[in-house]
Structure formats: structure tokens, C-alpha cells
Amino acid sequence: MFYSDIKVSKRLAVCCIWVSSIFGGLLQAQEDEQEIFSLTLNDLLELSVTSGSERAEKLRYTPASIQVLTKEQIKQRGYTSLSEAIADFSGFDLSTAYGSEHTTFFQRGYRTPSTQRTLVMINGIINNRLWGHDFPANRQIPFTGIERIEVLSGPSGAVYGPNAFLGVINIITQKGKDLESDGHHLTMQAQMADFDSKGLDFTVLGKQQGLSYWLSAKVYESDGPELEDMARWGFVNEDYLSDERFWGPVLNYKYNGVPYGEYVSKNQEHGVFAEISHGGLSAGINHWLTQSGYGMQFSFDRGQPNATWSKKNNLYYLEYDHVFSSGFGVKSFLRYRTEQRYGNWAEASPDKNSENSQYSFVTISDWNSINSSWQARQDYDYQYSDSLHLAAGIKYERKELTKAYEICGYWASAYCSLEDDGQLGPYGLGKGVYYSTDSSMPVLLGALGEMDESNLIRTTDRGAYFRASLKMPGWSLSGAIRWDNNSTYGTFIKPRVAATYDYNERNTFKIIYATAFQEPAPIQLYGGWNGRNANPNLLPEEVRDLSLIWMYQSGAWFSDWSAFYSKYKNVIKEEADNAGKRDVKGIEWRVKYEMDNHWFDAAQISSYINYSYTDVTSYINYDHQRGRWIGSGSAACKQDSTLCEEYRLPLGDIAPHKLNIGFNVPVTSQWSVNTRFNYVSSRHLYLRNPLRAQGIKLGDYLTTNLNLAWRSDRLSVHVKINNLFDSQIYHSGLGPADSGNAFTSADGNLSRTQGFYNSVLPQVGRNWEVVVTASF
């Protein structure tokens, strides 16, 4: 087991002391009701948000459960990346691999192969990738220009269409047209951190005589943590990378000047986001690139982390938005985007016929996929009266997608336009497949470019929606329905209904029934290779969700409580199979409080608590003896009726209890201390994980993150210490998480893993970051 019970107990004790001291002060402050009501906490029930229905409306009336992170809170906590911010929201489980996807997050308890069931948007523009539907939560997003981040929890298909399956993260930037007067503003930020990490982040915006603009950009690079910076895990061991029995002639090569056999996993990332506007016409760009090694994701006897795996996105758009004096609004949107996913990979596949599988078939290969689309949307908006609002719209999108990964220098079953089918290499397994006892192997990399026409498929998406909302004194009712048609998987109609009721000025109640569907990702439909089959017959996933929400505010107290029950069908697993049903039940409770600073003559103290409870039930099980999924809805059930038993088991990798606690304590007019605690309870591992069959659970843990900030009018300095108490932490493995934990064999030699993906992911211990920000 991977428990650190004593350490966690000590951390919890520290946490409880903090909570007791702060809330003891809060209770004392409550004795003076007049003092509470003099506090300056914004009236959060009246806060304007846009992600609930794609238009600005008060938080208390928006038909959704929404969390808001403001630019002031970003500054207080010292966030510089999206994954940092997500870790402090409620309702998310994270797995950090320090690889091609730095952090993968699962919203509302729904474990997926990658972050591909939550839409990530910049100012309402979807940035999830066309081919995988994923969004890599790396460090490519500039944070200097963010106005706020809105997180919508729950399915939102009737509002945002396909793939708004678990929720939405909408990153809303500052814009020049929102400036009160003509002028120009520049914010620059330099970042320096552990592991030779450095970044530059800047935002410039302005307005002049009706013309406005904004530009945010970031560059970031890091050597990444070394193995000694992490918790211990047997298959994350450099001895595996350099073992000649496993790797043979691969060790004759190097990448980026570093020989294979040494642990290296570097990152180079950048992003550019910009828009120029005049009147109601805007033109913009969302461009980002992530380039990373593989970090901890793969076991070291099968994959060398020293590589570059790249994801590139180029998105260009035109938008015209106009509201007539009659209250009728029209918005036209045109978008063109291209993306590429490419990189190299050094692999050692155990030869099961060799003694203890000690020898391998080895390859060094190039991978590539190229995808593009253009989309046109027309939206209409009409404020019929003070109480009735109507909206409708249509969408058309044409996509050109890679079918299979183009992989050259690999197994014969992979597609490569540069190799003849008859080129089967020395062992008849593929042109690039050699054996670990070979003294040499020829390698040719860097030849992949444009995608061959024979490996492309073109699809068409059409959609239409209608929404209506009625607001009356004390209550509101809203409904939406959306029709979507895809040339591959057919037609879906998804409704949404929500009602809100103001019991009084302090209490608002909501009930929401929402539905959505998730398209099968093209990478799973077509993008197979020898290690994973494609499945062009995948059905879209579907969800029905019922949510109850209670929002309460009294003076400086704000409480947001929600309970939900979601039923999923046609679940798509990492093996590209529809796998029956899942049920997810959960509770999220968020509390915010501000109080006078009794200890220091400074600004007010702010605090928050986020609690999540999640229960995830799978209706299928993984039989580790048979090596297959069984149960109602599984592929095995369709082939053999004796394997159709209906199971109800915890899915795994989702912590039942998660707790986030944070305090921001100004100590002078310029200095402040921000402390955040993240507690994650022990949890079952994924049903597919071999450690699950052994009865092993992942231990609970507590991390403490500290941010010391000095701020003046135009300059600020942040010193961040993450994982302050150097806790030894493990996250859940990704994909099938199938490596197992047999690190050594009976004769004392290194053992081979059961699969490519590490069953658990060791995490970095204490680390630091310094951030300097200047505004002009």
C-alpha cells in the first residue's frame, strides 16, 4: 500500500490548527453583527457570469452550478498554470505525469483516458483538440491577462453542443474594449522555478477611438523534475532505462544530445492569444504549442521518456456581434483551425518467449497526425420583455481528420506512407522492429510531413438550438433543446430544464435536469496501431443528470451547496470500446468568508473551503485472470452470454472525499501570506489496474502550498513553496494503468512490467517558484 498515515495525520493536525484559529476568530467576529455587515465582500449572488447560458446573467439565476476564480484571487494565490488552479476547485480528481499531458483531470468523478470530457474555452471559444477531444493542461496559457475563470459543473450539451459532457472551463480574458477610457496597458511576468524552469508571460491591451485590442503570450521551458525529486516507485528507475537486455541497440542512440538510457523529460511550451475589434467586428487567434517528454506516464522498461511529443493548435476566427435598439441581437462567427499531434517514441516490447521476458523487440519511431476544420455559426438573441428572453442558432462544421496515426519505423500493422507493405524488417514484424540482442539498428527520423490523402476522412457536423428563459419576481424558469447531426454517428436531440427560486434575498434554490452526449474521439475511431485497436463502430456516450443547488449569502458568508446524480451509458474506455453504464452521485459544498484583520493593520482576511464527495459505480468489471472486461455492456458479453453478469463496483481512481482549504492573510498594506491545503482521501485503484486485484488502495494525502506576496501599485513579487512539508504522494496511473508492481524477479533481476502505463504516478516533493510581475 502507498499510505503515509503518520505524515498525513501531522499535516491534518496543522491544518486543523489553522482552521481552528481562523474560524475561532470568525465566531468571535460574529458577536458583532454590525461589523460583519460592514465587510466589503462582493455580493456573489449578484455576480455576473457568462458560462451558464452563453450570456451575462446573475450567478443566482444562471441555470448551472458555477465556480468563479477572479483575477484578484489568481494574484493572491500566485497561480501561473491552469493545472494549479484546477487543483483548488471542487469536483476534480487530478493525475500528474509530468509528461506530454502534464496533468490530466477528471471532473465530477468520470475517469477518462485523458482530459477529453470537459470543454476548455478561451472567451467561449473551444480549444479542445479535434482528433482526441482532449486539452493538455500544461503551461501554455498566459495568466497575466485573465479576468476570471468560470467552471461550470455538469452536462451542458443543450448550451454548448457535443462534448460539453462533464462541464466547461471558460477562461475569460481582459479586453481592450472593456477599458473605461482610451489608453494602453502592459503587464509582464517573469517566472523562475525549481528544475531549471523559467517562463515569460505578458499581456498588452488598449483602446483608441473605437479600435481596441488585446494580446496575451507566454513562453515556458523546464528540464522537469529529476527522479530523486519524486516519491519512490519501482518502475521509475533509471536502471530500467539503461538495461541492455531490454533496450539493446536503442542505447547506441541519443535524443536532444542526451543518450537513451538516461532519464530526461524536458518541456517547451508557448501560447499566443489575441483579438482586435472595431464596433461589433472582431478578429482573433488562439495559438499554442506543447512539447514534452513522457515523464512518469510509461514504465521505464517499455518507453524511454527522453523524447519530444508535441501538440500544436492554430485557431483563427471572425466574429460580428450587434444588438439592435429593439433588443434583437445577432452574432455571426466563423472559425478555421488546424492542429498537429506528432513526436518520436523509443519502445521495448517484451519477448514473452524469452526467459522471464528479459529480451525485447525494440523500435525508434516517428508519429504524426494532422487535422483541420472550419466552422460557421449564426446566433440570434431577443429580449422580448423584461421577463422573457429567447435565443436560437445554427452551426455547420466541416472537418478533415487523420484516420490512423502515421507511424514510420514501427510494427507492420501501423500505417506509414513512406514504407512498402513488403518491408517487414529482419524479423518479419515491421521495417523498424529489431531485437535487443542486435548490435545495431538503422533509424531514420524526421521524414513525416503532410498527411497522405488515403489516410484522411472528412466529416460534417450540423446543429441547431433554441433556448428560452422566463424571470419573474422571486423565481425563474429556463429551458433549452439542441439538435446535432454528424455524418458518422447520426443524430442526437438533447434537452435541458432549470428552475430557480429565491426563498428570500439570502437564499436561492435551483433544480436542473441536463443531458449531453460525447462524440467518440477520432483517435479512438480510426487512430489505432498495434498496441491499440481502432473501433469505427463506437457509439457516442450519453448522460442524464439531476442537480439540486442551494446558494446562501449573509454579509461576509457565502455558501454554495449542490448534490447531483448522473447516469451514463455507452461509456467509452481507453481500449476504444463501449462499456455499458456508470452512475455517479456526489455532493459539492463551497464556503467563502471574509473578516476584519484583527491581527494586523491591513486589508481583510479571506478564506474558503471546498468539499467534494463522489461515489462512482461501474456496471462492468475487469477479470484479471481472463485479461478482459466482463459484465453487462462489455464487449465480452456481446460474444459470450455467460459473461453478462451486471456488476456494481467502485470504478476506482476517484477519491470519495476531497477537501480544499485556503486563507489569504495580509500582514501589511503590501505583504500577504496565502496558504492552501489540499486533502485527498484514500481510494480504490482503477478496475483495470493490476494492483486493484491485489486489494491495494492508494493512500490519502495532504499537501500544503504557501505563497508569500509583496505588492505595490505596479510591481509584485511572489515566492511560492509547493508541497511545503515534502509529503510523499502518489497519483493514479493513466490509461489502463497496467504496469503492476512486480519490480524484481525471484533471481533478483529487474522484472518486466505487465503493461506500458505505470499503475501509480510518483509525485514531486517540496519545490519552489519565484514570480515577478510589473504593470505599466
Automatic annotation (TrEMBL):
<keyword id="KW-0798">TonB box</keyword>
<dbReference type="Pfam" id="PF00593">
    <property type="entry name" value="TonB_dep_Rec_b-barrel"/>
</dbReference>
<dbReference type="GO" id="GO:0009279">
    <property type="term" value="C:cell outer membrane"/>
</dbReference>
<dbReference type="Pfam" id="PF07715">
    <property type="entry name" value="Plug"/>
</dbReference>
<dbReference type="InterPro" id="IPR037066">
    <property type="entry name" value="Plug_dom_sf"/>
</dbReference>
<keyword id="KW-1134">Transmembrane beta strand</keyword>
<dbReference type="InterPro" id="IPR036942">
    <property type="entry name" value="Beta-barrel_TonB_sf"/>
</dbReference>
<dbReference type="GO" id="GO:0015344">
    <property type="term" value="F:siderophore uptake transmembrane transporter activity"/>
</dbReference>
<keyword id="KW-0812">Transmembrane</keyword>
<dbReference type="InterPro" id="IPR039426">
    <property type="entry name" value="TonB-dep_rcpt-like"/>
</dbReference>
<feature type="domain" description="TonB-dependent receptor-like beta-barrel">
    <location>
        <begin position="279"/>
        <end position="724"/>
    </location>
</feature>
<dbReference type="InterPro" id="IPR012910">
    <property type="entry name" value="Plug_dom"/>
</dbReference>
<keyword id="KW-0813">Transport</keyword>
<dbReference type="GO" id="GO:0044718">
    <property type="term" value="P:siderophore transmembrane transport"/>
</dbReference>
<keyword id="KW-0732">Signal</keyword>
<feature type="domain" description="TonB-dependent receptor plug">
    <location>
        <begin position="59"/>
        <end position="168"/>
    </location>
</feature>
<comment type="similarity">
    <text>Belongs to the TonB-dependent receptor family. Hemoglobin/haptoglobin binding protein subfamily.</text>
</comment>
<keyword id="KW-0998">Cell outer membrane</keyword>
<protein>
    <submittedName>
        <fullName>Uncharacterized protein</fullName>
    </submittedName>
</protein>
<keyword id="KW-0472">Membrane</keyword>
<dbReference type="InterPro" id="IPR000531">
    <property type="entry name" value="Beta-barrel_TonB"/>
</dbReference>
<keyword id="KW-0675">Receptor</keyword>
